[in-house]
Amino acid sequence: MYGPGRNSLVRTAWLTALAAGLAGCVTTGGDRIVKSGDPVNLRFTCRFPSGDLAATTYPALVEDARISKSAVFIPKKDGEPVPVTAGERIGNPNRGQGLEFEYAIADRLADLSVGKPLGEAWSAAVTAERTPVRDGERQALELALVRVRPKEVRLTREEFCRQSECSADGPRLGDPFAYDPQFHGSVTGLKEDEVVVSIKPPPGGEIVTVFGTGKVRELPDRYEIPLEGKIGRLVRMGGLVGVISEIGDRTFTVDFSHPFGGETLQCDVLAEKGGPAQTASKGEGKK
User: Fold this and answer.
1) CATH of residue 51
2) What is the pTM of this model?
3) Residue 256 counted as domain residue
């Protein structure tokens, strides 16, 4: 069952954006029905069963703070419809590596668009089969369950100034340093050609990652952060969506063999007359 409140809000916002986009756009005659082999541009908004936004080609929905976005949602960079050929799969010479999430959706909608009227909205439940594994291909990634961060790093002055802002005189005591987005530090020691940086954990001692949260554990020489991964959690790495399929004592596994992480998406779709569809590049959808 789709979350009724979230589902209604997303659909209302989608219809508003749709009306704005269709203003002055009319298609008539026999060209109104999509036929197999027709080039079409697909505009769509898709939701997970929770009602959270999974993907959209409408910038207005991206900017609407009332709409709950899923953990794997990333705004489509250009905000443009996706060009496809109705009834055909999106071309990708390396399909085993997977299409980007938004193009995996369009790949299924290309089949479903056949027989639909151009310029009129329709809805569909979108599913996908697991991607067949071919020899030499990997569709799962094993990652460390415990992350490690140093309590101190030592850099040359040149290295420090390449990675952080320096005054005209070079590094100074107290200068800030970002080890990564969540662990920051400052200069606590200066030698002739060495800068000593002490690293501090984030406020509250907790980090947030796409794999789950983790509480920082302080040891004499380092910080350890065991991640609280959850089997079934959807994660996004680059353009691909995966699901945490296994959790062990020291590692966990993200399975990318299912384009939607095993979920069924509810999509609102509009097909417009388009030009020739492009071929997806390695590991990606069409640009």
Assistant:
1) 3.10.50.40
2) 0.70
3) no
